[in-house]
Every structure is written in structure tokens, then in C-alpha cells.
Design brief:
The protein is mainly alpha-helical. Helix content is about 70%, strand content about 0%.
């Protein structure tokens, strides 16, 4: 990173040298000072270098762009205090034009955000909302700021302004904000408020998986079995990839209504209406042994025999079974147990936006900070662990 900063300084010097200067003595002084600062940088003395660059900025109005580059590089390097000093120094210059002042204001706000000085960042960003060319960037930064503060009402307001300005849809994310508020209400055992907030979430995104899951859980806790089943079923109809999350709960609710036969009807309907359902139903049944209706058992058997990533494990099990006088076609339970161990030990969720993997379902990705892009994910890596699981 120091080399990047040094390159920025050298680029400025070469540009000035190339176009000449009517004030040779002035240029000589500035160049000498910049080389002094460059020497400090290369000798890993950034504080001394910073003092030199700020001193030069006070006597040379042509150094603005170079200082913006330096401030940005310091911030990206994690040296936020130095970035703040550079941008504050630029803001203090009386001859700074309107465009550069707005840029310095925005860069300083980014410094404050990076430093966790959210109140200071908010003040600058609100000022930038009325500055042409910076409104959208300021709105996006304010969204990030209010998300950090968990100020969901303000985040919603900024998202709506952003949608009006840019035309980019914001409803799915706003639905997540309402779900966040609903979870807070649930923690406070305020069920009426939680329901109202979840209805607002659904008004933004009718198929919001999270809202349906929370409403299903509320209904289940209140023993409203049919309503709970409807919400769980809606999730599976819209997004079968959540089968591992939903099917165990759906089975639990169904048993309170009319027993296993009803669960079989649900799984049969899912398999019939969705070509991809069999694999997800199989994984859900492997993860939860209580999902043992005939349809789920059939999906498990098909999956264990045909899934390409399990071919090595299945062949090993078949060979082992022949040695023991067991036909693997008729007894897949040991193989199912082995696959369950592999699934439990691996990541269970993946962000479709950045690929971040985890064992916890995050509605906002910790990696890229996008909402509603993390989905259940099941990767089976057949290694020696698979063989060990069979023994």
C-alpha cells in the first residue's frame, strides 16, 4: 500500500514537471517537500510524511487531487486517523471550490464511517443529500449507517428515497427491515406488534420467506396448527431450498392435526409440482430422521444411489456390504448416517451474492452486507471422513 501512495506522489510530480511551471522557485520548493514526504513514506514513517503533505497543501492549491488520492489510500490501508487529517485539512482551505468541498465532505464522511464515528458521518451525509452529484451516494451511505445503528425506520426512509431517485427496487430489503423490527417485538413478547410488522413486511414482499417463517412460528406457539401449516407450506411452495429449515417444523405441526398421512400428501405434492424437490426433500429427511414418511424415504433412497458427489461413498458401502453379506439396496441406513455426519460437519448456508459460507442462517450476509441472499447449501465432500463414518 505504501508503494501505491508513493506512486500517487510521483505521478503528481511528473505531471507538474511535464507541463512546466511559471513559478520555478515555488515548484522547486513544493517538489523538494514532496520528495521529502515520499522518503518518509518509503522509510515507513507515515506520520512525518503526512505532516509534510499537509504543509505543502497549505502553500500549493494544485495539490488537491493528490491529497484526495492520499486520503483514500490511507483509509483503504486502515489508517483512518491519517485519512481524516488529510480530508479535514482540505475542508479548512478557504480557496477550495464547491466541487472539491463536496468531495472532501463525502470522503470525510467515509472516514468517519470507517472509524465508527457514526454521528459525525450522519451529519455530513445529511448535508450532502442536497448536493447535486452526491445525493445517491449519500443515501447509500446513510442506509449502511442506519443498518449499523439498527435504526430501521430511518433505513426504510432512505431506501424509499433511493428507490425514487434511482428506480432500483427496494421492497425486498425493506421487508427484511420490518422482519428485524418484528423479531425485536417477539423478544419483548409483544405478539400484536410483531404480527403488524410482519404484515407490513408481506406488503413489501408477499413471498418473504422470513416473514412466513416468523408467522408460522408465532401460530405454532399459540397452537394455531392450521395457520402455522399454511405459512410453512407457502415457504416450501415458493422456495424449496428451505426444505431443511421448514419440513421438520411442518411435520411437527402436521402431527398435531391429522398425523403422518397429511405430511405424506404434502411431500408428494411438492415432489409432483417441483422437479427439483426430490433432492431437497432427501437432504431434509437425511438431516432429520423423524421425516420418515414413504415419499421422503423414497427420495432419500434415490438421492443416495444417484447423487454424483456420493458415488465414491456409495461404491465403498456396496463393497463393504458384500463383504458382510448385506445388500446395500435393501439397507441404506448406515450410508444415510454417514451422509448426515458429512452434512452436519460442513457449511449449511451460502450467500448467492459473494459466496460467503457459514453454519448459521444470516438474513444479512456478514461478508457483502446484502440482504435476503443467503440460502441453505449442502456440499458433500467425500474424503477419509466418509469412510470413517461407515465404521
Amino acid at each position: 500500500m505504501l508503494l501505491l501512495i508513493a506512486a500517487a506522489v510521483l505521478g503528481w510530480l511528473l505531471a507538474r514537471w511535464g507541463r512546466g511551471s511559471k513559478r520555478a522557485s515555488h515548484f522547486k520548493f513544493v517538489s523538494a517537500e514532496y520528495f521529502k514526504g515520499l522518503n518518509y513514506l518509503l522509510n515507513e514513517q507515515p506520520d512525518k510524511a503526512l505532516e509534510v503533505f499537509i504543509r505543502v497543501a497549505e502553500v500549493d492549491s494544485d495539490t488537491v487531487e493528490t491529497h484526495f488520492a492520499l486520503g483514500s489510500l490511507f483509509r483503504r490501508r486502515g489508517e483512518v486517523d491519517r485519512a481524516i487529517r488529510i480530508h479535514q485539512n482540505l475542508m479548512a482551505r478557504p480557496n477550495l471550490n464547491r466541487e472539491h468541498r463536496a468531495q472532501a465532505l463525502f470522503e470525510l464522511a467515509q472516514d468517519y464511517l470507517r472509524a465508527g464515528l457514526l454521528d459525525r458521518a450522519e451529519s455530513l451525509l445529511l448535508e450532502l443529500l442536497d448536493v447535486p452529484g452526491y445525493t445517491e451516494s449519500a443515501l447509500r451511505s446513510l442506509v449502511s449507517l442506519y443498518e449499523q445503528q439498527k435504526d430501521w425506520d430511518q433505513a426504510i426512509a432512505m431506501r424509499r428515497r433511493l428507490q425514487t431517485l434511482s428506480g432500483a427496487a427496494q421492497e425486498e430489503t425493506i421487508a427484511q427491515y420490518y422482519c428485524e423490527m418484528a423479531q425485536t417485538a417477539l423478544s419483548a413478547k409483544d405478539m400484536p406488534l410483531a404480527r403488524r410488522l410482519l404484515k407490513r413486511a408481506q406488503s413489501q414482499d408477499a413471498d418473504c420467506v422470513r416473514a412466513h417463517l416468523l408467522l408460522a412460528q408465532i401460530a405454532e406457539n399459540e397452537q394455531q396448527w392450521e395457520r402455522s401449516r399454511q405459512h410453512y407450506g407457502r415457504v416450501l411452495e415458493r422456495e424449496i431450498r428451505y426444505a431443511t429449515e421448514v419440513l421438520p417444523a411442518l411435520a411437527r405441526v402436521t402431527r398435531q392435526l391429522d398425523g403422518q398421512a397429511s405430511l405424506q400428501a404434502v411431500t408428494e405434492k411438492l415432489r409432483r409440482n417441483n422437479p427439483k424437490a426430490s433432492g431437497y426433500l432427501a437432504i431434509a429427511a437425511i438431516m432429520d430422521p423423524e421425516l420418515d414418511d414413504p415419499v421422503s424415504r423414497g427420495c432419500v433412497a434415490d438421492y443416495l444411489r444417484s447423487e454424483p458427489s456420493l458415488r465414491g461413498l456409495y461404491d465403498m458401502y456396496a463393497a463393504f456390504g458384500q463383504q458382510q453379506g448385506v445388500t446395500p439396496v435393501h439397507d441404506l441406513e448406515p450410508l444415510q448416517l454417514a451422509v448426515r455426519k458429512l452434512l452436519i460437519n460442513g457449511p449449511r448456508y451460502r450467500c448467492e451474492e459473494c459466496g460467503f459460507r457459514s453454519k448459521t442462517l444470516y438474513w444479512q450476509c456478514p461478508g457483502c452486507k446484502t440482504w435476503n441472499r443467503t440460502i441453505p447449501f449442502h456440499e458433500i465432500a467425500f474424503t477419509a471422513a466418509g469412510a470413517a463414518a461407515l465404521t
